[in-house]
Amino acid sequence: MDGTLFRSVNKFFIIAFCLDIKSYKSFMHRPDSFFLATKMAAPLTLLLIVAVTIRAVLFRSSLAELISARVEVVSPLNAWKRVVEGLALLDLGVSPYSGDVFHETPLMIYLFHFTVDYAEIVFIVTDGITALALYLSIQTYNKDVFRKQKYALESDRYSADCLELLRSPKEMFYIPLKVAMFYLLNPFTILSCVAKSTCGLNNAIIALFIFCTLKGSALLSGILLALATYQSIYPLTLFAPALLFFLQRLYIPVNLRRSSFWFFTLQYAFMYVGSLVVITGLSFFLLGSWDFIPSVYGFIFSVPDLTPNIGLFWYFFAEMFEHFRLFFSCVFQINVFFYTIPLSIKLKEHPVFLIFMQIAIISIFKSYPTVGDVALYMAFLPAWSHLYRFLRNIFLVSCVLLACSALFPVLWHLWIYAGSANSNFYYAITLLFNFGQILLVADYFYAYLRREHHLTHGLYLKKKDGTEATLVLK
Amino acid sequence: MAAHRCGLSLVFILIFSSLACHSSCESLEKANEDTEEKQSVSDTPREVNSDGSIAAEDLNERRGRSTDAELDRRDGTRTSEALTPAAAARDEFQEELVIRPLHSGDIYASFQFRTLWDTDFLQEGQKVSHYRLFPKSLGQVLSKFSVRELHISFTQGFWRTMQWGQPFIPSPPGAELWVWFHDTSPDFCSILSVDGNWKELTNVLSGIFCASLNFIDLTNTVQPSASFKPLGLGNATDHRFLRYATLPREIVCTENLTPWKKLLPCGSKAGLAVLLKSEKLFHSSFHSQAVHIRPVCQDEQCTSKAWELRQTLNVVFDLYTAGQGKKEWSLFKMFSRTLTEACPLATSSKVYVDITDNPELFELSPATPLLSQAVVLGDRRTYSVYDLSRAETFGQLRSLNLLLRWKGDGEMLRPLLHAERYVAGFGLQTGEIHTVIYNNHPYRAFPVLLMDSVPWYLQLYIHTLTVTSKSRDNKPSYIHYQPAKDRHRPHLLEMLIQLPPHSMTEVTVQFERALLKWTEYTPDPNHGFYVGSSVVSALVPSMVAMNTNFTQDQPLFSSFVPVKEESSYFVRVYTEPLLVNLPTPDFSMPYNVICLTCTVVAVGYGSFYNLLTRTFQVDEPSLPLAKRLANLIRRIRGVPLLT
């Protein structure tokens, strides 16, 4: 009696939900341009206008110079001052890579060689492009999620009592806008843009790569991934999620004995490696020497510049015993690449979440991180807003991150200008900041896995004796 | 066998240099005597000098004995041939002391000792093995490392150009070494060997002069493209054969003076060198000693080459404070010695006193009838000359003690070129180097070459370089910039700037301070890091016609830098060295930092590992202890278990 009632109520909910889906679907099937023009264009335009205004005002204020000198915002890899220095060296007839100031890639020099006078506009536009790409990617992703959820519901793959875990079009409607807002109005992004850190350009390339991947264009995705790799090496770990996404999209099972799997993998790898070779060759022909390889990639890997930043490397290697240096630089660099394969195995059904995890891991463990890198993965957080109920220590983490962001400039001032603190103070804050980031990412990972578990096993789990069960990792 | 001996002698040289490096100078002296004793066993012919005085004979004997015993042993058959041309080669030694009363009330004393030798160290196939007046230790160094020109100076204190005028031979605070290597074959291989030679040379010189020149390495060596041209014969232009390095932190003291004095033919036993007592020389405002070796013309036609060794010692005594407010000085007061004889080996031995301002300013006794005029640094000066080789100079007391009493203060002619430098900015993140160059010439503009060598840990931003004269932008007509490579080479910035007449030109460039590895900091890191002086080299328009005929007999101090044209003279001005603070890590923390950072990484690893390898399961609480014990017994009894 009890069971049948529950079932009928359940059916009713599912029908209601499907109706909701239908309305959503009819809405989604309208032409995109019309859709943008009617419902979402206005808030998005408003958002872009606000973001551009904030940036333009900050560029014109005296704060711009102050911000561009902050070690949290710019690193030796992407400081605007160093780009200008590289251009000045080029003007003097000296190779920018003959010194140890300039570490941008050759394509970057040529980009700014022509646009150095409009740098501010370039950076504002770049941020806009990133936000737009993220907006469209998440919109596509949501459609995808919704479609899959519908199929799963129709094939009864979800447990009966997990209705409240299902995502509704209403709640998903504003997520792309929120993502764009999280990126554009995040103080970290604003600071990064006002400091003219080239990190914003790398973010744009990664965002476009995600967009092309989610739109299903393997060639463009390969090219953009190659470009992102060329810019800062680390994004090469995004190869795995992109490949998984395409395989899933083309309904090719991940099976090492299937020739179709290998065919597509090699095809995508060829596109990626081919464009990487072309881009690198192009840089060689632009400058006529391979000097940029040690100066850009050697610099990223061997971490010779110990200028403080928000990462884990600088103080560790400043205090390192000389004969352990190589060992520990290998250990620390491996961290970025180490998690790719296990994560790909664990999340092979969820490549977009895998992309988020990889970007977050890169921004935590890269050798010269800046707040711009943090901003990129933070922009994805609204996309996982449905995980909120499973997050364990989001309050603690937000407090830690907020407090650290406020304390960075304070302790920097005490150390560098006031002389009343020493390097340990600043180091402690970077340590805590990274600890907070690790907690945040691990927490989202946990919540994602838990939700997936609940979707298949039911939300309200019971013990053998019928009492309410607690879920643990075993 | 020959190779074996060669190896032996190399080992010998190595042991010798390491002894010199590590032991104090007393032990160096001892080692020197030891080798000399050993060498005297080999039968080298004695030199008998023509002037025949006992002292001279004695000293000559010392010199003669120091012929190269190792080389003799190596090619015993060639000994007699090798000795003949060397013995025939003409050499001469000159010494002089210039005393210039400065307008500030200080006294500037400048010693110059010149040894001239008509031989060629670098000639192929000819081994120089017989040394008379020229110090063997330096001669060997020249031929081994194929050095063409060598300039080394050790300076304690800073020359105050605005109060003291231009020095005869300028030098920056600390140690400075610049060497032109012989460019026999300008192929790639010989350029590579220059770096190796330079490294070895600095280590050998470090032993010879008891100085920390071994700290000169690639990180503080530069190859200036224009500022340091050879001063001797030949017009080498390939700056890949030039090496320049300064050690602004080097502290100069007695241990550097003793080996320097030993290079003199008479040591400190006779001649002007008796005045060089370290307890007085280092109780002064400024002390600088230098060695300059270069090839010069043998005669007016310049048919063959001669090697010139100039040892100079400049000292400024602050007599006003030392003499309890009485402005009067004498040789005895300054050096606690008087002069009694010339060095018997010297062909000329003179003391010059600058009396251009006499008698308005001071009065000199004993007076001398000998006067000399010379054009020095664009100014015609008159000197009283005391010739020590003449017996009447010493008078009845058989000693010369010059005495001078000040009568009043006079106005000094302002030096036409002057430069200073400082660091601006606050905090330990960035800063700005300001170099200010003054042209005090009332109506002539002239170009100067500014050279800056900045260590790599101050990252210069060349795009922030500004040059302003009279609050207007002054674009340098030539810029040579070599950016630094971290831990490999310093920044080198050379500029040709036109200085407008009667102007002040300011050169600024911003830099960023690097955080170093904890092992890269010097002891007492919070004292700061020194940045060597900038060098301003210029041809300054002269007020009077300069003397271009440098073969003509003239005082030594006026003939160091060759004068190419009458209308201008060469001046080099060194600015102050900078002392820059860098951010420091906590030196007591390495273990803590390694542990803490690894902990954070491990937290990341641990949480990901957990989530990756484990799966979600419903938590079934384990039975209480009593029930488990009961179950154990029940299992033995074969009864159904409790749940």
TrEMBL record, chain A:
Identification of the protein by name: Phosphatidylinositol glycan anchor biosynthesis, class U
Pathway: Glycolipid biosynthesis; glycosylphosphatidylinositol-anchor biosynthesis
Entry keyword annotation includes Methyltransferase: no
Keyword Transmembrane listed: yes
One Gene Ontology term, aspect cellular component: GPI-anchor transamidase complex
Originating organism: Cyprinus carpio carpio
One BP term from GO: attachment of GPI anchor to protein
Entries under PANTHER family matching the protein: GPI TRANSAMIDASE COMPONENT PIG-U (PTHR13121), PHOSPHATIDYLINOSITOL GLYCAN ANCHOR BIOSYNTHESIS CLASS U PROTEIN (PTHR13121:SF0)
Domain of life assignment: Eukaryota
Pfam families found in the cross-reference section: PIG-U
Keyword vocabulary terms for this entry: Endoplasmic reticulum, GPI-anchor biosynthesis, Membrane, Transmembrane, Transmembrane helix
Family: Belongs to the PIGU family.
TrEMBL record, chain B:
Database matches in InterPro entries: PIG-T (IPR007245)
Coiled-coil intervals: none
Keyword annotations from UniProtKB, A to Z: Signal
Signal peptide, first to last residue: 1-25
Region: Disordered, residue numbers: 31-84
GO cellular component, one term: GPI-anchor transamidase complex
Domain of life (superkingdom): Eukaryota
GO biological process: attachment of GPI anchor to protein
Ranges of Basic and acidic residues composition bias in the record: 31-49, 59-78
This protein's name: Phosphatidylinositol glycan anchor biosynthesis, class T
